[in-house]
Amino acid sequence: MPKVTFPRMGESWRAFKMLLEDLGNEVVVPPRPNKRTLDFGVRHSPEFACFPLKILMGTYLESIEMGADTIVTTGGVGPCRAGEYAMLHQKILNDLGYDLKMIVFEPPRLYPFNFIKNVWALNKARISIREIIAHIKRAWRKLQALDNAEKLSHVVRPREVKRGTTTTVYRKVLEWISEAYTTEEIVEAEAAALEALRGIPQDFSKDVLKVGIVGEIYVLLEPASNLEIEEILGDLGVEVERSMFLTGWTRDNTWNETTQGLTVKEAASPYLPELVGGHGRDSIGHTILYAGRGFDGIIQLAPFTCIPEIVARTILPRVSKDYNIPVLTFFLDEQTGKAGMTTRLEAFTDLMRRKKRFHDVSTCLTG
Amino acid sequence: MAVKVGIPGALLFYLYFPMWQAFFNEIGVQVVPSGRTTKSIMDKGIREALADACVPIKLFYGHVMDLKGKVDYLFIPRVVCLNRKTVYCPKFLGLPDMIKYSVDDVPPIINVRMDSRQGRFAILKAYCEIGKYFGAGKLSVIRAYLKAAGIHYHYNRLLRKGWSPLEAMELLKNPGADKICRPPKANLKFAILGYPYAIYDSFISVSIVEKLRQLGVMVMTAENIHPALLALQKNCDLPKRLFWTLSDIVLKAAHLLFKRGRIDGVLHLTAFGCGPDSLLNKLIEMEAKKHRNIPFMTLMIDEHTGEAGMATRLEAFVDMVRRRKEAEACRR
Q: Which of A47, A163, B216, B245 is deepest in the core (most CB within 10 A)?
């Protein structure tokens, strides 16, 4: 029986594992990216490929060691490089002497037959279409539950009384959601998870800053690649709102554009009317929307050499000036160190806090 | 006094400048090119552009800075797609916005969008929009466009004959000269693969073409190959074509040259931090591995590339290829 693996992106593997197992596959869960993954990835990837390619390369190699022989991943239609990565990964892996199968999901709106073909290839248990749809729906519900729990953890963490409680509770509730199988169980687990997170002792009098995180989807979603920036910020007393979650992004890019997706596009259009691939335009749009909602600052995360984010980064200083909102950019790669990042974040937080206080005082003075 | 439009001498300049110049002249607009790259242009570009951008983009910034204050308009079209299949690098797509929002007091930018996927006459419509900036009527725009297209055709023919873009631009000005002086012949023939804006800008490529010619090597590039031959390469055995026009051309050229085998060496010139090249280089490298009889080398350039280092590498490569060729000739 073929063993299937897939790219790891945050906690989403819990839902994908369930879905693939439901379809009758044996699943190799990709390990959390670590030093060894990066070493593997860097060794076998082109030097200037962006960070996600390197991490995935390493993850695939580690999964292959664990016995995987089929990789399920996503494609794309450009102009971002990520659309070609599946092809490049396969070429490199074949070159290294691994013979494996790649199942690449292209955007179903443009390639409906590719989607059907791939689902059929993965449907080892030969279940009916109705059941497949039910399984996908359930996996989707689980993804939403995971995203909701993560969203809430970002709100609770900066206000927690005892440092580290949120992370501990969050790890625990992830397991609850993970174990839930039927839709009712998932809904119940989600409710319990949110309840547990809300139940963490919090200090509501704390002066909490609000920061939006924008940027490229992989480094936003995979904590191992962004060095758990949300946790660092949470510990610094900053509430984080991330511009992208897997469920929201998937909805915008597969069947239907949500009003949220459209607003972002509209907001960005005075500055960047063109889709430059990846998430360049979204970064600008979200920055403008967050500024309108009175956020204290924006952090842009991008992999080193990411083309769309370089375009966005060139325009962001102007947005920052026009909307009077501080923006800090991190270009992440395998050389990024946690200590350096923490120092920069601490400085940024101090500056934002000072700006906020000064602003409060000046408004008081003027009336 | 005629309106002055500045065309920065970087990026698409090397492919479309004669066409654009002819078009603007025809509708009664004066064209001001920024000229050859100099040290001061490069320095200005480095200061102005984002550190993470690649050299060609930094150079483009330099040329824009050079034109600033001298012209009434800057011509930076948003070239998205010209062949209905592949698009240009995302940095080209966002180029007008990048310049507009990061350079202080730039002249108004003519940033029409050129996307041939939008319909049959999309490109012509784009040119009509350019005409609107200068109050040119539809008819005169169409006439100018046709003339420009004719010039573009001639220019491409000259490129295919083996002239470099700058030489071809000279030849367009005084026709007939190509009959007198032909591109020099030599016994070694190398292909330099890469983007025209990197290879032909003798400042950032540290005059690689001239250096090779001095070493007694004939040089060809992807522009010298007939597009039909490139089109025959289809998808180069890949399940998916490369998304980017220029990269696609280079990959096809590489496949063609390796397959045909009538070449003594292949060089890939790439810029530090170039996004599409990170894939392209790996793909060419894998192709080169399959054809062991043709030596292959990758050269990476950035704003700090030194003349001496590049010369040493080229000399060594040429020597090795030459020795190998002699040895093979003896064996026969």
A: B245
Domain span holding position A122: 3-127
Check if A24 contacts B (Cβ < 8 Å): no
Do residues A199 and A212 both lie within one domain? no
Is any Cβ of chain B less than 8 angstroms from the Cβ of A280? Answer: yes
Residues of B contacting chain A (CB within 8 angstroms): 49-50, 52-53, 78, 80, 87-91, 93-94, 97-98, 101-102, 113, 238-240, 242-244, 272-279, 281-283, 286, 289
Residues A140 and A237 in one domain: no
Assess whether A239 and A361 both reside in one domain. yes
CA B60 to chain A, closest CA, distance in angstroms equals: 14
Could you give the maximum distance between any two Cα atoms of chain B, in Å? 70
pLDDT at residue B235 in the model: 77
Q: Which two tokens stand for residue A329?
A: 């950019």
Please list every residue in chain B whose beta carbon sits closer than 8 Å to the beta carbon of residue A285: none
Q: How far apart are CA A115 and CA A98, in angstroms?
A: 25
Residues A216, A350: one domain?
A: yes
Task: Collect all residues of chain B within an 8 Å Cβ-Cβ radius of residue A280.
Answer: 90, 94
Q: Do residues B230 and B253 lie in contact, with contact meaning Cβ atoms separated by under 8 Å? A: yes
Angle of CA points B76, B81, B87, to nearest 5°: 105
pLDDT in tens, B116-128: 888 888 898 999 9
Could you tell me the CA-to-CA distances from B160 to A35, B23, B38, B202 in Å, in that order? Answer: 50, 22, 28, 20
pTM: 0.90
As for how many domains chain A has, the answer is 3
Domain ranges of chain B: 4-160, 184-331
The arrangement of secondary structure in B4-160, i.e. its CATH architecture, is 3-Layer(aba) Sandwich (3.40)
Which letter does DSSP use for residue B11 in this model? T
**pLDDT tens track for B223-262:** 888 888 888 888 778 888 888 999 999 999 999 999 988 8
- Considering the domain architecture, whether residues A117 and A145 belong to the same structural domain is answered as no
Residue with the two structure tokens 């603007």: B24
Last residue of some domain: A162, A185, A204? A204
Compute the mean pLDDT over every residue in chain B, rounded to the nearest whole number. Answer: 89
Closest chain B CA to residue A95: B286
B62 falls in which pLDDT band (50, 70, 90)?
A: very high
Within 10 Å of residue B328's Cβ, how many Cβ atoms?
A: 10
Q: How far apart are CA A264 and CA A287, in angstroms?
A: 9
Give B-chain residues touching A313 at CB under 8 angstroms. 50, 52
Shared domain check, A328 and A269: yes
**AA letter at B300:** M
Final residue before a domain boundary, out of A204, A219, A238: A204
Q: Is the pLDDT of residue A364 over 60?
A: no
**Which tokens belong to A275?**
């889709």
Q: Between chains, do B240 and A83 touch, taking CB under 8 Å as contact?
A: yes
The DSSP code sequence of B243-273 is SBHHHHHHHHHHHHHHHH---SEEEEEEETT
The DSSP symbol for A159 reads G
Q: For residue range B83-101, what is the model confidence (pLDDT) as tens digits?
A: 888 899 888 999 999 999 9
Look up the CATH architecture of domain B184-331: 3-Layer(aba) Sandwich (3.40)
Q: Which two tokens stand for residue A71?
A: 């990789």
Decide if A79 touches B, using CB distance below 8 A.
yes
The string over A266-303, giving b where at least 16 C-beta atoms fall within 10 Å of a residue's C-beta and e elsewhere, is: ebbeebbebbbbbbbbbbbbbbbbbbeeebbbbbbbbb
> Are A348 and A212 found together in one domain?
yes
Q: In chain A, which residues have their Cβ closer than 8 Å to the Cβ of B49?
A: 314
Alpha carbon distance A2, A71 (integer Å): 10
User: Nearest CB to A46: which of B97, B101, B278?
Assistant: B278
Q: Do A91 and B283 touch (CB under 8 A)?
A: yes
